[in-house]
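Q: What would this chain look like folded?
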Amino acid sequence: MVQRQPAQRQRIGPAIRRLRHERGMTLDALAERAGISASHLSRLERSQTLPSFTVLAKIAEVLDVEIDEFVRLERDVTLLDAELGRYLDLLGVTSPVRDELFALSIEARQALVERLRRLSEAMLTPLPTQEAVGRALGQAEQSAIWADLQHHLRQAGLSGPAFARAWMRLLETPGRREILVMGRSFFLLPPGADLAAAYRAVFRGEPLDPLVATIWERSGWVRDPAVVRRWPTRMLLRRGVLERALAGSDAGGVPGLARAGARRLGEQLLDRLEQDPGFALALTDADLGPFNAFAVDGQGGLLEQLPARARTGTVRSGLWVSGPELTGALVALIQRLWDDLAPEDRAREPVAAWLRARLAEAER
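A: My prediction, written as structure tokens:
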């Protein structure tokens, strides 16, 4: 049964307080100009008493609004509290905590509802779009592939919360990994890095799903090298991405990753290349396209394109595909790009030697 919010109090008081704040007016100043005591105005704003029409008209005059403005604000707050009440029902939040949340300022309740709304609307790529992405990936001409993917990204790209959910889903899915990194990417973020800082560097103002943060912080599938090495992995990495990260330049490297973290990433790549026969790494100077990709063969895949700098508003950052057929198209593209590389770009020893040299330079 849906719980009701605290007694359906009149919301004219909060409306008065909101308008007062918007005009930068103190409680004492408004009370003096309206000809009422500050204590009475305080009770009005806290809905402990209702204003007479005369008092309300005087307050409206001082605030330079029509009385109808209070009615509109009251209606807006009614809708806001109904939405907040629905979320609290879904979360199982009961009194007295529920009452305390409804007692927050209108601005605080708005901020809470907005974050909850963004998380609830963070959906993965719709199936029709996934199928369109699969058709795009199957084209022979690379320029056509990238153009179509750019179109789908603009139309139905993942928001920050949805992108993070898709990425964590892949990290906890068993199977062979195929990874392509041509530009700024979360896919290189090493375990132990500050995920929240990296997320904020790209999705400024977007909420981070608490489940995603918990998986990142605690899951052995993400943090344990023994578990990570269980899955064969092929990674195709543009040299400039790692070089800029090691130089401390976030513009082309890993979002939110400090130079020390970039060195740790390079060390982990070198260690895995030397110790794990199931890990293959290619380093190239070639520009193979504007997208990064992470696929678990036969399970799912994520296309990633991050802005070079943090932006306000919703950032459309990726496209998700699932199932053997659509994931297979993404894996086939990465395989084709790998096969087209010069042999020295994907030979184990030259790649390891390059990593050793770059890490030695970063230490100086």
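Confidence is low (pLDDT under 50) at residues 1-9.
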